[in-house]
Amino acid sequence: MEDKKQRGQRSLLPLLSSISAIVVGLLIGFLVLLCSNASQAIPGFGAILTGALTHGMKGVGQVFYYATPIMMTGLSVGFAFQSGLFNIGTPGQFIVGGFGACYVGIMMKSLGGVHWIVALFASILLGALWGCVPGILKAFFNVNEVIAAIMMNYIGMYGVNWIVKSYKPMFNNLRNESNPVAATANIPKMGLDKIFPGSSVNGGFLIGIIFIVLIYLLLNKTTFGYELKAVGHNRDASKYAGINEKKSIIVSMAIAGAIAGLAGGLLYLAGSGKHIEVVDVLASEGFTGISVALLGFNNPIGIFVSSIFIAYLTAGGFYLQLYEFSVEIIDIIVAVIIYFSAFSLVVRLILARLRQGRKGGNKP
Amino acid sequence: MNVIYFIFQQTMFFTIPLLLVALGGMFSERSGIINIALEGIMTMGAFTSVVFLNRTGGVMGGQGQLLIAICIAMATGALFSLLHAYASVNMKADQVISGTALNMLAPAFAIFIGRILNGVQQVQFNNTFRIESVPVLGSIPLLGPLFFQNTYITTYLGFLILALSILVLYRTRFGLRLRACGEHPQAADSAGVNVYRMQYCGVIISGALSGLGGLVFVVPTSTNFNATVSGYGFLALAVLIFGQWKPIKILYASLFFGLMKAIAAAYSGIPFLNNLGISSNLYKMIPYIATLIVLIFTSKNSQAPRAEGIPYDKGAR
Questions:
Q1: Which residues of A touch B279 (CB under 8 A)?
Q2: Residue A180 carries which DSSP code?
Q3: Are A212 and A303 in contact (CB under 8 A)?
Q4: Bridge partners of B293?
Q5: Which of A91, A148, A199, A309 is within CB 3.0–4.6 Å of A134 for a Cys-Cys bond?
Q6: pLDDT tens digits along B23-47
Q7: How far apart are CA B128 and CA A64, in angstroms?
């Protein structure tokens, strides 16, 4: 009985710490609004909280549309975290994957009905390739995966810019971005346009949910997932227990990269007019993934919820412009939430240690 | 010859900010705190100091104005880095996460406040700081055009800070203690060193230098600040590793990276390179690829401070 109660408390704890970080983040956001323009602060804050629902079902659909790519980049970061790796390489994997999808989407027009599926596979493949480089370097050369992934981000970004720009059929000279993909490469709506009329949500959202479930099953119901988590907890102990820890690290980074690459595919094949812009800026969807994962305590289901939460805030943020605030307030709020959720990780650890200590003391 | 002078002068514009920020990162990491927030701190330092330049543009100008801006940039960086120090030292938070949060916060803050102040996110300033030629020194043949023409006082400040860093790190009690905290904080603690205080110092120094680096990056290469330092903080992190956490090697690394950046920015004006027809994107990629290769060869017996990234816990055994 007691055991069950304790387990219940333990699963509530991260939720409580995440919620308190969110509350602090929102409060600071409100304070910033208050300091910059006191008279508009309250309606502005209201827009953040409820703006996403202004247009009813269309608004909800938009939230799901925004949530799709960051859900995937978040899943990528969270999955790598479970095996003890910090995948800060999502911006690079994202853009490389997006490039793969656009390349297939623009160049291979004769594929017909399976066009969009092939394009998505291209994004997964390229993302996995980009992700496994830091994994290989970590496994064989002991290179810190954070630094390697940061390098891969820039190599990917400049590389994609280079290819898109120098490849005539892909490049839209006037707008300095990639050309639109063929209509057959756009992900089908899968009925979501009937439920959320007028919004950009599409089958990508459902594909995202499928991947959430797949990763959840992989981590919690398979031997391989168990091995990944074991390596994450203690690399040396796992090696001693007979787990091929090098393989685990590489495969884990490759899967993380694949998911982040898919995020790029899902965004650029959404049929919402998104193209690869040739600018020297890392994809923000990648970095937002880090926030999503941290807020969802690296758990696939938590990541699903937190991606929708952040998408909800972002959608509400657009309405802030009505009150002459810029949308960056959302980034400020999210950054503050992440900053404080870094604290709460510690609070959680201390509480866990206290509880363990007490349990140890009871033993004869 | 003129082309060589031109490239060299351009290289300096890109090298000095990298040098400053990487040195800053060195102080933080040598004390045991990973500071991935360099990018964000640069952004904040550049933002406040450029706002100062913008606001005082009509009444002030020249080197005096730049010197005040330098002080503002350093103070801002130091203050902003306190957030990272508090999270890493007091709260024992994951240093990468805290750094990531600050990197997100800085540009958002700069855009938000910039819009409130000026209506647009770009903050303009008048560049009245370029030194055409340093009196007397500028007319020395060869050395004059290389070091003393078309330059900024920040270039000399950069070298001064490099010299000071070497002195402080290797020739003072403070430097020895700082390095001890990064290698083996428990041992340092038992010898009576206040580890927490040293780590605070390391992070604050890195903040001040990164803030300065932000300003030094913006001034020679642009006439406005657009809420970004274009990945220079991350590049400085690469410089730091490339330089194996040692000041002189950091100088060489930043010169190499600076040269690559200068070529990427100016190659179309150089007939020889323009004729090669290589995309500027390749030059932009080279520093990152080079860093990856260096990482492969050096990581097995890395010179990284041993206790880096591990929150120091007095009670740990």
A1: 162, 165-166
A2: P
A3: yes
A4: none
A5: A148
A6: 999 999 999 999 999 999 999 999 9
A7: 50
